[in-house]
Amino acid sequence: MEQRKIMSLGRSSLVISLPKYWTQLNELKRGDVVSVAINRDRSLVIFPFLKKAEDLAKITLHLESNENINFIIRNIIAAYLNGYSYIKLVSKNFFTVNQ
Q1: How many other C-beta atoms lie within 10 A of the C-beta of residue 57?
Q2: CA 80/CA 23 separation, integer angstroms
Q3: How many domains does the chain have?
Q4: In this structure, is residue 42 part of a structural domain?
Q5: How far, in Å, CA of 11 to CA of 49, rounded?
Q6: What distance in Å separates the CA atoms of residue 45 and residue 39, rounded to the nearest whole number?
């Protein structure tokens, strides 16, 4: 997990920068729109706004075998709330019964 500093933009706005590799991976550029979801634990999840309607229907979530079950659930729910109707879970290892 990366840490980012909060910067001030004007008198009433606070901003953080997005990791460059993430913006390149999602082919984002200046002026593009991202979706921000607030979780119950007050954490934020940022999703790139997909421009093609056919891309909105499918998403692949890459999970590690040691991922916390709550993290997995939050990602699935966030993907669903962002319009994905087909959510594929991929892991290098088998999923546990709890996952």
Answers
A1: 13
A2: 21
A3: 1
A4: yes
A5: 28
A6: 7
- Here the tokens at position 40 are 């119950």
pTM tops 0.90, yes or no: no
39: domain range? Answer: 7-91
Distance CA 84, CA 22 (A): 20
52: left (phi over 0), alpha (psi -120 to 50) or beta: beta
Whether 99 maps to a domain, the answer reads no
What is the per-residue pLDDT across 28-42, written as a single tens digit (0 to 9) for each? Answer: 899 988 988 888 899
* The token pair that represents 77 in the structure block: 């729910």
Residue 54 pLDDT class (50, 70, 90 cuts): low
Q: Where are the alpha helices (DSSP H) in 1-99?
A: 20-25, 53-56, 69-81
* Residue 1, domain member (yes or no): no
